[in-house]
Amino acid sequence: MSENAKMCNPAAIGLGGFAMTTFILQAHNLGWVGIGPVLWLGIVYGGTAQLIAGFLEFKTGNNFGFSAFTSYGAFWIALCGYVIAGTSPSFAKAFPVLKLTGTGLGWFLVVWTIYTAIMLIASMKHHSVLALIFLTLLIGFIGLDMKELAGSKAMGTFAAWDLIVCAGLAWYLMAHVIFADVGINLPVGKPWIK
């Protein structure tokens, strides 16, 4: 490969994996689909493909993309593993420490809420669409925290709809990345912080 060969933008895959898996989980949370598609997409596309995108962002020197895609890829793999191991009677019997507990999922989500708040601040230096993705993601995590830790079903429903908007924004930004390569420029807005 020549030194001047063009490198693809890993965000195209990272954003796609994030958007699709976020959407399908909310479809599950709203009762539209079972857990199977969530787990498969979470492990393969939201998890593994995002991890790969993050590692490729590392090669470009993009700390934000590296952290976001690698971390959220790990989130999806961990969440799917937690659900698979935590809800399986045979796993619970063989490995009781892996059992899903009453507040375990809530606290799992809280630490991701903190991470997302940090990423929201950094996203504000990029452009409006990226900031909106992280703002809706943060709001969604807070709603899910309240659902899991306070038992608020209404907040869980609100979070699901909010995260569907988040997934749509991520798909829009994915389209922006892909379309830019063929000369179609979708607007992304100005940074919120100069």
Q: Over the alpha carbons, how many angstroms does the gyration radius reach? A: 17 Å
Largest sheet at a glance? Answer: none
Global structural class:
mainly alpha
The fraction of residues assigned to DSSP E strands is under 5%
Give the overall average pLDDT.
Answer: 93
Number of strands: 0
Which outline best applies? globular
Q: Helicity, in percent?
A: over 70%
Instruction: Give the ordered list of helices and strands.
Output: HHHHHHH
Number of domains: 1
* Uncertain spans: none
Termini separation: 38 Å
Structure commentary:
The protein is an all-alpha fold and 194 residues long. The chain has one domain. The chain contains 7 helices and no strands.
Describe the protein's topology:
Elements lengths: L10 H19 L6 H25 L2 H25 L1 H6 L9 H20 L4 H23 L2 H28 L14
Features of this protein?
single chain, 75% helix, 194 residues, 7 helices, mainly alpha
Provide a quick synopsis of the model.
By secondary structure, this protein is mainly alpha-helical.
